[in-house]
Records
---
Amino acid sequence: MRISELSRVTGVPVATVKYYLREGLVPPGRATGATQAQYDENHVARLRLARALVQVGGLSVAAARDVLGSLDATEGSLHRVLGAAHSALPPHVGEEREPTRARELASAWGWRVHPHAPALRQLENALAALADVGAPASDERLARYADLIHRIAQVDVTGVPTTSREEAATAVVIGTVLWEPVLLALRRLAQEAVSVEVLDQS
Amino acid sequence: MRISELSRVTGVPVATVKYYLREGLVPPGRATGATQAQYDENHVARLRLARALVQVGGLSVAAARDVLGSLDATEGSLHRVLGAAHSALPPHVGEEREPTRARELASAWGWRVHPHAPALRQLENALAALADVGAPASDERLARYADLIHRIAQVDVTGVPTTSREEAATAVVIGTVLWEPVLLALRRLAQEAVSVEVLDQS
């Protein structure tokens, strides 16, 4: 298909398609002339994912390019794809803080994670922020969340297709960037529902 | 205490303290002269919370002012405080999409939520984004998450102090803005741990 049809099928304006092509978020089409190219279903899928990362995930174009690049570049197991995607996905945290407590917690829960996993630093920073406002996270409360979130992760990982590496990588990116807003919205709704239930009992 | 000590105690630079005062994130001190004012422990607490919202929560100064304003303005039950805080907190979504499916889901799960709760629109938008990339969320998968997240919300609500309205409101804001990064980091770590466990079994 031509670029105009690519735009029509995906609902992404031609100017945005050209911008994403120029920035490398979508691979170039097959050249059919000096100024024309042909696109296929792979371009449609990649363009939809690029738009979702930028518009729903709130990623910068540069961050989206890194994440989409990890889909092409990663080799090997689902586990490696997960690592590559998590490293490229926000939030990005500095190197300044050693994730000592986060490592201890993961170890206490029997979670085997890479000692330099970016999520360890994210956790350490988030815990430091809580301590900083005078509302430190207790080990007990964290353990209760960890138990429930481990079960959520089992649902996550079960949902990743094992048919092809690219499909698996795409599912991991979608699972991180696009499911996070779903889960956060569910938590806010559940908080409201639980607070109503508590009111009823009091 | 003077502004210099307020800065020293909280670790927030004087220039930032002045900026937050000017923008209304922190209430003015008690004037003790033409250019001097005294601050107390309430200012310390508010300043720490303001900094955490902006630096960890990633809120704009305007959004942080709205959230902090909801702490002062809200009257009544914890349930109302929750609604006010959620409305002021990101992500903000437009009015364009009617949250039809989100309402149906909440109703199917027996969750009593306000029909105009902002989280319903957040959920609807997030679900639309998943459908848009060709990875729609099934009712079955959502129900599994909803069950686990309802239990997370029970931990959340149990942790809210009932001693005073202001403490409750502060805890709700902290629970939403500062615990969300903790829970997301835990999910990423748990995904890695579960994917290792799955590898071991295969």
Note: The CA atoms of residues 74 and 81 of chain B lie 6 Å apart.
---
Amino acid sequence: MVRPAPAIDAIPATTPFVGPEQLMRECGLRELVRLGANESPFGPSPKALTAMRDELPRLGWYGDPESLDLRDALARKHACEPAHILVGSGIDDVMGLAVRAFVQPGGSIVTTRGTYPTLNYHAIGFGARLTAVDYTPDGTPDLEALLGIARREHPSLLYLANPDNPSGRFIARDDVTAFYRALPHDTLLLLDEAYADFVDPGELLTPHLEERLIRMRTFSKAYGMAGARIGYALTAERNVQVFQKIRLHYGINRNAQVGALASLGDDEFRDRVVAETARARAAYYALAAELGCASIESFTNFVCIDMHTAERATRVVGELLRRGVWIRKPGAPPLDRFIRVSAGTEPMRRAFAEALRGVLAEMPA
Amino acid sequence: MVRPAPAIDAIPATTPFVGPEQLMRECGLRELVRLGANESPFGPSPKALTAMRDELPRLGWYGDPESLDLRDALARKHACEPAHILVGSGIDDVMGLAVRAFVQPGGSIVTTRGTYPTLNYHAIGFGARLTAVDYTPDGTPDLEALLGIARREHPSLLYLANPDNPSGRFIARDDVTAFYRALPHDTLLLLDEAYADFVDPGELLTPHLEERLIRMRTFSKAYGMAGARIGYALTAERNVQVFQKIRLHYGINRNAQVGALASLGDDEFRDRVVAETARARAAYYALAAELGCASIESFTNFVCIDMHTAERATRVVGELLRRGVWIRKPGAPPLDRFIRVSAGTEPMRRAFAEALRGVLAEMPA
């Protein structure tokens, strides 16, 4: 009898996220207002769309396994060398590589309880020990507590999302820098900057291309290409060479590379997306206030709105889905009493607002 | 200091394949006749192109993590259930998952020396022990020798490509079935059927959806979507559930799923590609005969042509590249004296023929 490897056999069966397509099947819905996965409703830049459309007939060719042109352009954008850049099939892919490369089975990872969970998925998948630290009461990753654990445990890897998902909070550059400098020198900081494009560039970490720091970026959010699966890491050349030994060299869609490259040449579109996303956040803040709910100031393309209890938040998500509006909610305290809604277009925001007003009107406070 | 995990640190630095984009940079070429990676020069089906073009504006959405629609269509095609199908980012991705899931570090894998090398890449990457068996003198995987080793070693996994790459040979269904039945019951047969679409369906294995067999298929070859990165495995439901614990759930490009689904509805296009590929093979056989070279009858979209010695084959590949024609060659005896050329369009075939005639005319026999 063929048995899975014992380490794999021991992993409990899980599905990280239930996708909207499955929810639609289960609920018999033909359409859904997609506000659950922090996807960009503005899609890819027109320049990216044109470039991808023009290149579709050449999809018979494998993509460049070294992403030479894209890495050249990214190196110009980040004032570094192509040798500092690893391109992957989105940040999820890069995170898996980071865990596999830098955490041996039984090794230790420190993260925040309830933050973006795919890091946990990879940690479990590669047999790491996870230690999770609670958010501060206002939903900010608790740098002091993280640092305390890191100094005691000397974890192989510490994960921090900044801006954070699902809270939307942003930790100022100087605080992150001080935190990074204070970490044990045998701990790798895996810094998830998926939402960095929504932050003023002047407030972001300046590149530290050091061996114990991996910064991850994506084309999924401000660039509107989540479906393309393309992201990258900025780090020391040594780390890129380590990834080179284990990454899927032909894993990235050719057209994703084409679109990402063209996107980098359309700052005007990205700026418009960022501005429209700010309008969406403001609309959600106003809606929350109108409904007597608190909301968390967000530096991302989503906003958390307080439903007072976790049970009520779960019910609201379910009731919104029945009305054809798909959102998600944080899974762990103190954020689990919130719902999280992604920035939508104006009509999507209106649909969400109407549905939420209806749901709350029918629900005891 | 941050060190990679010891098992990863121990992996020698390698690049599985040098891509044509890098060769073009190194050689200062602006164009290349791409006949090196068994890509389809016919590209995706027109129906797939239309579907992908129409869906590009929705690339802001993640692809369905369960590939529900595509798996439904594949289940109909293969007369099985969606639960028997794992969709991955090409066969390379599926192979990595199979090694990771079913071969523990230090576990044993048996393969053929010189066959498709990405299996070896994953084996090394996940710390497996590789045992490679030579091809028979005519370049066919040596089932008898593979079986002998398997019975002695009880490997966790045995890899067989049928049709084989790089030889192009095809082992008849009854022989593969007998081989599979004779394998130890604790050995998983990983059957790479990337080129199965070029074989008469009646000559293929009927589905054995058993725990100790994983059949891998791709949209990269006859379907002309190598750049999309999408392939799948047919296997027992238990195995799909094992993969569900470790696969990258959001790893597949949304548009790749759209194109693959549309491709399945265009048998006429696929049949034309298969017929044109047969014409390309015939043209290469005729060219080889004209030049006094032997060739191997192929059941794929490529042909191996005998250059008499490995050194000469290597030189021919280099000289063709200088002339702007990119092919590859097998790396291990007995096939390393061959060059391997992919099926091209008629103009591509002509460019290859002219270049090869020129190269051989200047080269002592």
Note: Chain B touches chain A through 85 residues (CB under 8 Å).
